[in-house]
Amino acid sequence: MAFLGVSGMQYSGETFPDVRIIVAEDSNVFTSMISTRMKELFKIDVEICRTFEDLQAANELSDEPVTLAISNINLPGAENGEALEYLVDLNIPTVVFTGTFQDETREKLLAKDIVDYILKDNIFAVEMLAESVYRFLTNHQHHVLIVDDSPTARALLSSRLKRYNFRVSTADSGAKALEILKANADIGLVVTDYNMPDIDGFELTRRIRGARGSHELRIIGVSSSTNRLLSARFLKVGGNDFMLRPFIDEEFYCRVNQNLDTLVQIKAAKPRK
Q: What is a biological process (GO) this protein takes part in (predicted)?
């Protein structure tokens, strides 16, 4: 049965009994809470690793790949972050679950290309963790198109979205974006730059809206301009959201999630024929 999470995300009721999730955490309270919630929501029996040695054994003594790791920064036997380094070096997608957080910690975590980080400092921590896990397990259902004439910008946004397990296509021009959209009806989100040489972000949005409404596809505009009126103009031509560069990872991911959550809820509310 579908229901809303604490952030407004809609759970579909889908379960993942064949998914392998490792929890690297030495707190009995949190391991119990996480195990219980993952079982209740997703029918997943997580593997608990209370020490660095447990974590290494869980990975090395099994031929079954790890779908996702949930890890504290420090574990017994790895008091200086070695457990997280171990997971990242093995390219195991990892959500960090930590009670330790400063700006410097955040920078180090994001530099490691982790999937997400969740803070243990509130009563909703395990629920937020569950939402992060659910998003990672289901984001492949969403196809996102990045439109930007800058190769660097395209690569940056694409890598961010792929880290979160989205399917991503890219276009270096408005004309190419329209071609890709015509060939891929499953694209649910377009992230487009404003300033492009052939068709700017405004005109691209107008043309997209001529074929697909907000109930079918969401559009986020981005720009490095200092002109604050761009957001108003973009929304008036059919955009759903707008961000000024430079933006931080968490803000970008939150905006993407909010727009896709809205799309999912609109589609779920439509009466079935």
A: phosphorelay signal transduction system
Residue with structure tokens 């690569």?
155
Count of Cβ atoms closer than 10 Å to residue 105 Cβ: 15
Q: Which two tokens stand for residue 246?
A: 């430079």
Domains and CATH numbers, the chain: 3-138 (3.40.50.2300), 142-269 (3.40.50.2300)
One-letter amino acid of 200: D
Q: Where are the beta strands (DSSP E) in the chain?
A: 3-4, 10-11, 21-24, 47-49, 68-71, 94-98, 116-119, 143-147, 167-171, 187-193, 218-223, 241-244
Q: What letter does residue 78 receive in the DSSP assignment?
A: B
- 63-109 per-position pLDDT tens digit: 999 999 999 999 999 998 899 999 999 999 999 999 877 777 778 78
